[in-house]
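Re: that chain you flagged

S.,

Sorry for the slow reply, it's been a week of failed gels. I finally had a moment to sit down with the sequence you sent. For the record, here it is as I used it:
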Amino acid sequence: MTDEKLDQILKQALAPEISDREIQIHRRRKDKMNTFGKIGKGVAAAVAAAVIGIGGLGYFNPVLAAKIPLIGKIFEKVEDDATYSGNYTDKKTVLTNEDAAGNLDTSDYTVSDKGITLTASEAYCDGYSIFLTVNIESEDADFTHIPEHYTGMNAADNQTAAGFYIDGTWSVDESSPEWLANTFEGKAIGSHTFAGMLKINLEEKYTGSGELSLNINGLGYDDDRMLDGEEISASHWTDGSWNIVIPFEVNGTDVKTIEVDEKKGNITLEDVVVSPYQVIVHVTAPGEQRELTDDRREKLLLKDPDMTDAEMFELPGRTYEPCSVICFNQDGEMLYPNMEMAGRAVFAVQGKEIKTLYVCIFDNPDDWMQMEQEGMNSSAAERAVISKEIHVE
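Prediction finished late last night. Pasting the structure tokens below so you have them in one place:
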């Protein structure tokens, strides 16, 4: 996702009352978090739209909040406002259950350090991503000042969520560790409790059951009382160690893969995956040579700390460049473009009915932006490298 495309999404999505200053603050925040590696390359381009304060969702009285049974029901709290919104009731696996006396045993899924306690609550996996809910508690914190950002297509959707930064690595079944490149997205439940959802994208399709290992070394959040400052990113940050292993099982219900294999020039639309909460368009566009980016260097060093740059350059393979992909459903509704990276473009379903998908792939970001502004019937569609109608049902 280019900076130009990000700016266009921001301007298109924000309400008129959102000032240019707030957009600039958010861009500073995003750039700073990229520096620390807390938001991966291309991951947060469309998710974080703007800081809009804490008035939209409302907060519970801290005393009452302590009586609300959150564990096992966090999806219910955040599923309407998260980017990957939807009803998780029949899809999720609850990690902790009540015993005969009505008590919750969370010992296997709770870790504490530096005064912060993190409890994993529920998990869902469609084979391509793991959706995990967590409960974060700190007696010394005031989570009610975490700013919210837009998670819907437009400000008028009134869909917003707060973000909680996470730094560290993850792996599945003892695979090579990957950087955590996302945030917990959710809401504060009183001053000392945050309920959130984390989405982790698997590199390859997964089947069966497995274990997700989270090795977290930092947690933090912004403070809306510091919005006028030059530096607001993770103004409340804590380094520590929160390591937890979460079992998961792939739930293939309502997950469909439509093979396409259409090639135009050097771009190939391989297939489209439709799950209850996301649409993934797999696209390959080979580049001329593999680049040794900072992200790639860090990933290779995780696998072999002694590897030199020269050895990295000699590794076989070609780089695959991101394309500009846009999707509409049969009603002409554009799907929320949440992530775009080499090999895939990911869209949030957000409750939209999907019987047919119209996928356009551009090699010119300006054409993508024109179609994003004008809709499915834009003249820019004629300039798409690949334009495909895909029947899902």
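What I noticed first: The two ends are 30 Å apart (CA to CA).

Talk soon,
D.
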